[in-house]
């Protein structure tokens, strides 16, 4: 029986020394450069090529160091030229794909890193002896998370981005700046205090306001009070009273709602002036519900 050829990077010599001892113990013949190349070898490159050609298989020690080694990549190329069976052994590194050349990420390998060494050695020996035709790809390692914590998914799909998702919200910076500037202008010019954000359904109006505009305003004006979002639904005054109550808990909820229902339509302005803040921002989501769901004209 001919030998197996061990292809490795010098930085992995501790791992390779351990593997050589185990191969010897299991009577597996191997060829490795610092044993196979005698002192004074005139053409060591040719000797390595002959050693690969005379082998029946190659054990490829895979690691970050082997990825950087031109000699390892050349040895694997020669082995492929001779159509030899190659047994990749994952010896070191955090990520398999980062340790192999492009196009090699799907090949099967045996994981012998750290505490996986003994189980991996058994799989390798079975493959080398022909009792196990292939080396199975190990299951991907799942990240270990603290107990009770789920991994955070930054992609919302069709869900709306909120203020809690502000750090994940990208791509609307110019629109957010434009909306912020419009509000600043309205305040400076003492004009109307109403800003409508219009667009087709699904365009991202709610997300750009909740995850873009409102966090930007709070960052620029820490002393401004942003009320909780309201959705009109069938009882918009109740929703408005709930939002105001969060900023003025000294008043009862029923008193706020009664004030809002006072004749004249000015009580929202008067209540807002009682909130201890230079500016109060109220965001009404799904504003069209005032016309599609609210049946009471007085409430509208």
- What strand line-up does the widest sheet have? 2-1-3-4-5
Q: Tell me the number of helical segments per DSSP (H or I, 4 or more residues long).
A: 12
Proportion of residues in extended strands: 5-15%
For the record, give the distance between the C-alpha atoms at the N and C termini, rounded to a whole number: 91 Å
Map the helices and strands.
Blueprint: E1 4-7, H1 13-25, E2 30-31, H2 33-36, H3 44-54, E3 57-62, H4 64-68, H5 70-81, E4 85-90, E5 110-111, H6 117-128, H7 173-188, H8 205-220, E6 225-226, H9 236-245, H10 253-260, H11 267-273, E7 280-281, H12 289-292
Parallel strand pairs: 1-2, 1-3, 3-4, 4-5, 6-7
Helix pairs in contact: 7-8, 9-10
Describe the structure in your own words.
This protein has twelve helices and seven strands. It is an alpha/beta fold. The strands form two sheets. A five-stranded parallel beta sheet has the order 2-1-3-4-5, with helices on both faces. Strands 6-7 form a two-stranded parallel sheet. The longest helix is centred in the middle third of the chain and has 16 residues, at 173-188. It starts with a strand and ends in an 8-residue tail after the last helix. The model is unreliable at 133-140 (pLDDT under 50).
Which properties best describe this structure?
two-stranded parallel sheet, 7 strands, 300 residues, 12 helices, alpha/beta
Summary, kept brief:
By secondary structure, this protein is an alpha/beta fold. The chain has helices at 13-25, 33-36, 44-54, 64-68, 70-81, 117-128, 173-188, 205-220, 236-245, 253-260, 267-273, 289-292; strands spanning 4-7, 30-31, 57-62, 85-90, 110-111, 225-226, 280-281.
């Amino acid at each position: 029986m001919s030998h197996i050829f061990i292809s490795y990077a010098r930085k992995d010599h501790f791992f390779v020394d351990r593997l050589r001892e185990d191969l010897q113990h299991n009577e597996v013949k191997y060829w490795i450069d610092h044993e196979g190349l005698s002192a004074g070898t005139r053409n060591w490159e040719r000797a390595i090529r002959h050693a690969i050609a005379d082998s029946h298989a190659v054990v490829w020690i895979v690691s970050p160091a082997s990825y950087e080694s031109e000699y390892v990549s050349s040895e694997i190329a020669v082995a492929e030229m001779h159509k030899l069976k190659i047994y990749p052994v994952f010896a070191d590194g955090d990520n398999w794909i980062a340790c192999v050349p492009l196009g090699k990420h799907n090949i099967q390998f045996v994981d012998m890193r750290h505490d996986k060494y003994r189980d991996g050695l058994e799989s390798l020996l079975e493959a080398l002896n022909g009792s196990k035709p292939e080396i199975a790809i190990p299951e991907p390692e799942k990240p270990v998370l603290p107990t009770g914590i789920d991994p955070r998914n930054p992609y919302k799909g069709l869900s709306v981005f909120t203020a809690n998702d502000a750090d994940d919200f990208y791509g609307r910076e110019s629109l957010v700046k434009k909306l912020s500037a419009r509000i600043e202008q309205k305040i400076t010019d003492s004009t109307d205090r109403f800003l409508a954000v219009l667009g087709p359904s699904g365009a991202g109006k709610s997300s750009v306001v909740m995850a873009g505009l409102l966090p930007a305003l709070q960052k620029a004006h820490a002393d401004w009070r942003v009320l909780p979002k309201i959705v009109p639904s069938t009882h918009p005054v109740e929703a408005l009273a709930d939002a105001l109550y969060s900023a003025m808990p000294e008043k009862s909820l029923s008193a706020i709602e009664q004030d809002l229902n006072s004749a004249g339509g000015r009580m929202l302005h008067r209540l807002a002036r009682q909130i201890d803040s230079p500016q109060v921002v109220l965001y009404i989501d799904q504003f069209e519900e005032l016309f599609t769901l609210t049946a009471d004209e007085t409430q509208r």
